[in-house]
Design a protein that fits this description.
single chain, 304 residues, Rhomboid-like fold, 2 domains, two-stranded antiparallel sheet, 2 strands, elongated, Rhomboid family intramembrane serine protease, Znf_B-box
Length: 304
């Protein structure tokens, strides 16, 4: 885009606290927020609330809500994805998948345990029907299917409410593909740590690992945008207290999901603009390799 000297979008070299760039209209004000259309830094005074993120006054004046100013780059999310018309689509799909599996379990009636045993996360389950099955026997799909199972209505309701609350802002900030990758990797991270550290024959299921991953990612995103961290830190603290004090909760899945979700989000929102895709792919691959390594180590322990 051609820059006109003195225009609102002239690049600024000002650096504020922590190396943050200066606002494009007020260079002396450091900010971590950028216009979702032209990607210029904007301070709180210049932020104009939009359907996704914030826009600068110039983009609001020169464009309609769906296009972008002539010569300007197409609008992008904070992580560099194209802005979707429905920033809740993937979240709705995930909610639908969880609900469908939960209903399928309920419809099994007396055979509920049969379905759960074939999809939850276990090591070696010798007391259950032969042949033995589980991740240790090569059924790695259980690391994924366990993320969509809930044995109780309260467990299901709490996780789905959390998903609906945490998911859309992250989906809007990261974009659909990156958000999907983060959710799945966080859930797999929770499954992997539960598989590694939990008792050998202890079944484990639920979307909680992925939900904790979204919570960790939210904290990383708010820190990146220089927003008030107190609400999310209080929420995270309360959830961790319940994790370790409430009975029958897999703390391993919660911690695994939290760590992976925060790590993947950090790589996505802090990647250099000119190498975003490369850094994002490398971050996801590194998380996936770490998950595979944990599962491999545990499998060797069980079968060795």
């Amino acid at each position: 885009m051609t820059q006109v000297p003195g225009s609102p979008h002239t690049p600024q070299d000002a650096q504020g606290d922590g190396g943050l760039p200066g606002c494009s209209r007020h260079p002396d004000r450091p900010t971590g927020v950028r216009c979702t259309r032209c990607e210029q830094p904007i301070c709180p005074e210049c932020m104009v609330s939009a359907s996704v993120g914030f826009q600068c006054p110039s983009c609001v004046r020169t464009g309609s809500g769906t296009g972008h100013p002539p010569g300007a780059a197409a609008p992008r999310t904070l992580a560099g994805s194209t802005i979707a018309a429905d920033p809740r689509l993937i979240t709705k799909i995930l909610l639908g998948l969880n609900a469908a599996v939960f209903i399928a379990v309920l419809l099994n009636g007396g055979e509920t345990g049969w379905l759960l045993r074939r999809l939850d996360l276990v090591g070696l389950v010798e007391p259950w029907p032969s042949p033995p099955y589980g991740v240790a026997e090569g059924q790695w799909y259980r690391l994924l299917t366990a993320m969509f199972l809930h044995a109780q209505i309260a467990h299901f309701a709490f996780n789905m409410l959390s998903l609906w609350w945490l998911g859309p802002p992250l989906e809007a900030a990261l974009g659909r593909l990156r958000y999907t990758a983060l959710y799945l990797l966080a859930g797999l991270g929770g499954s992997a740590l539960s598989y590694l550290l939990a008792a050998q024959n202890q079944p484990s299921l639920g979307a909680s690992g992925a939900i904790f991953g979204l919570l960790g990612a939210t904290a990383v995103l708010l820190r990146r945008l220089n927003y008030d961290m107190k609400p999310v830190l209080i929420l995270l603290g309360l959830n961790l207290v319940f994790t370790f004090l409430w009975p029958n909760i897999s703390w391993q899945a919660h911690i695994g999901g939290l760590v992976v979700g925060a790590a993947v989000a950090f790589g996505m929102v802090h990647a250099p603009r000119h190498r975003r895709t490369l850094v994002h792919v490398a971050t996801c691959l590194a998380a996936l390799l770490a998950i595979v390594a944990l599962v491999w180590v545990r499998t060797l322990q069980l079968l060795g």
